[in-house]
Structures are given as structure tokens and as C-alpha cells.
From TrEMBL:
It comes from Streptomyces antnestii. One of its GO terms (cellular component) is outer membrane-bounded periplasmic space. It is found in: Cell envelope. This is ABC transporter substrate-binding protein. Coiled coil: none annotated. Belongs to the bacterial solute-binding protein 8 family. Keywords: Signal, Transport. Residues 69-259 form the Fe/B12 periplasmic-binding domain. Its main location: other. The keyword Nucleotidyltransferase does not apply.
Length: 290
């Protein structure tokens, strides 16, 4: 396709220009991106997962996506070029954590994919604020014909104010973690996660784990998690996190669970106003109930 023939263009967060002769109608997306587009009223033709995912779609990442209606194309090494192209997409929407890498797709597959179909990658990594990620997805959605911001700006502004008020009135300590198994837990560094950084900016007392290796997480034992004495714990609910039965008997975890309010946490939250409003509301309610 000649560039001058394009009537739709979008410059993604890698600086790549995706172009098409018409506004794309058939979109295949990484599950987080697909859930975001769904909130904007755009139905993805298919979705795919990451190297951390199983053969089936992770419901924790799916947001409001109807997983029984949207085709799942695979994840990680199980996601081949043929599977994506079989969905006949006009556009592939992915995410990136910087460095130009299309997340969840084998680099060789990603390279050949862009030879066949436009690919847009939105940066959801540590260098972006939650609002910036949300706006980039909104820009993309608007270019595809969506209207509005994905659920209502008024609702988001209201829940942000309520969360700020709850944080002032009931200043509980909030720790985010991803269970690693019976002997390990990954403690999130708040500044590295757009959603946790947003909580901090609204006045929530997010807990910083000890210094050590690991850019996004501090990997430690359950004793270290207990020592942080959180009032609220955001527990990674994705399928790649260790299931509760692997660590439920640990005395340090039992101490955490006895002293804190536990909330499910999706570190790959859909980047829409409605999803962010629900997240803020959930934390605000936990602070009030604490």
C-alpha cells in the first residue's frame, strides 16, 4: 500500500506510523488493549495473551470483555503468525513496556506480522502516568471511530476525589504484591506501576518494599511481606500469580491476611475511564472499611 493512499494513520509510542487505506474495522489486540477498546465501544475480532499466560484467556486481565464471544488466538510461544492472520485483522493493537518491544509477541513473529498488517503499540510501562496511558488509548479509539473516553470522565473524576478524601480520613498503608509460591512473593515498587503511582498521587500511603534487585518488584519471602504491616493488600489476581493454596498455610501470610483487607489486583488494568474509576472506588471503599 502506498503511503499517499492512506486515509487512516496513527503514530504509536514506538514512533511507528501505522497506516491503512480505510479506518480499520477488524482489530486483533493484546488482551489488556482489547479490554480497553471494548470499554470504548470497539469490539476486537480477536485477542491474545503474553508469555505469562495459559492457553486460555486470563479472565483477570479481560475487564468487561465477553470472553465467550471474542476469539482467543493464543499466548506467548503458542501465538503464531498464522493464527493472527487467520483472523483477517485490519489492525493489531499491542502494548509495550518500552524499548520498542511488542509485548507478548515473539520478536520474530512481531517483525513478520508488521509486514502483513499495521501494528500499533501503546506504552503502558513505568515511564507513563495512568492518565497518559488512558489518553493514548482514547486517541487510538477515537481514530477508530469511538466517541467518549471509555466510560465517563465524570465518574472517574468523582471516584478520584472520593479516593483522595478516603486517603485523608483513613490513611491506611497499601501494599501491592504478586504471590510467587510457598516461599516467595513479589512486592511491587509503587513508582514503577502507573496504577499504583496514581494512588500515591491521590494521597494513598502506598508501601515501598526494601531496596534490592528487581526494577518493578522486590522478590522476598512472606516474612518480609508481613514485616511491612500493610492495612490493605492488593493481591495479583492474574493466572501467572501463584494460587492461594500454595501459600495459604504460611504463618507469615496468615499474619498478613489476618491484619489486612485483601483486594484482587490486576496489574494490567484496562486503560479506560470506567476501569480506572472502578479501581479507585475499590481502594477507596477498602480504606473506609479498614
Amino acid at each position: 500500500m502506498e503511503r499517499h493512499a492512506a486515509v487512516w494513520e496513527f503514530t504509536d509510542d514506538r514512533g511507528h506510523v501505522a497506516a491503512a487505506a480505510d479506518v480499520p474495522l477488524r482489530v486483533v489486540a493484546y488482551i489488556q488493549a482489547g479490554a480497553t477498546l471494548w470499554d470504548h465501544g470497539i469490539r476486537p475480532e480477536g485477542i491474545f495473551g503474553s508469555f505469562h499466560d495459559d492457553a486460555g484467556a486470563d479472565p483477570a486481565k479481560a475487564g468487561a470483555l465477553p470472553l465467550d464471544e471474542v476469539r482467543y488466538l493464543g499466548a506467548g510461544a503458542g501465538l503464531g503468525l498464522e493464527a493472527v492472520l487467520a483472523a483477517a485483522p485490519d489492525l493489531v493493537v499491542a502494548v509495550t513496556y518500552g524499548g520498542g518491544q511488542v509485548y507478548g509477541v515473539d520478536p520474530e513473529v512481531a517483525k513478520h506480522l508488521e509486514e502483513h498488517v499495521p501494528v500499533v503499540a501503546i506504552d503502558v510501562g513505568q515511564g507513563r502516568s495512568l492518565g497518559a496511558v488512558r489518553e493514548r488509548f482514547a486517541e487510538l479509539a477515537r481514530s477508530l471511530g469511538a466517541r467518549g473516553g471509555g466510560g465517563g470522565l465524570g465518574e472517574l473524576e468523582c471516584t478520584a476525589r472520593e479516593l483522595g478524601q478516603a486517603a485523608r480520613e483513613r490513611p491506611g498503608r497499601v501494599l501491592a504484591l504478586s504471590p510467587g509460591g510457598p516461599d516467595s512473593v513479589h512486592l511491587a515498587r509503587p513508582a514503577r506501576w502507573p496504577d499504583l503511582s496514581a494512588l500515591t498521587a491521590l494521597g494513598v500511603r502506598t508501601v515501598e518494599p526494601p531496596e534490592g534487585p528487581g526494577a518493578n518488584w522486590n522478590t522476598a519471602g512472606w516474612a518480609e511481606a508481613a514485616a511491612l504491616a500493610p492495612d490493605i493488600v492488593l493481591v495479583d489476581s492474574r493466572v501467572n500469580a501463584a494460587p492461594p493454596e500454595q501459600y495459604a498455610a504460611d504463618p507469615h501470610w496468615r499474619s498478613v491476611a489476618a491484619g489486612a483487607r485483601l483486594l484482587p489486583w490486576n496489574p494490567e488494568l484496562p486503560a479506560s475511564e470506567s476501569a480506572h474509576a472502578r479501581f479507585f472506588d475499590q481502594v477507596a471503599q477498602a480504606l473506609r472499611d479498614g
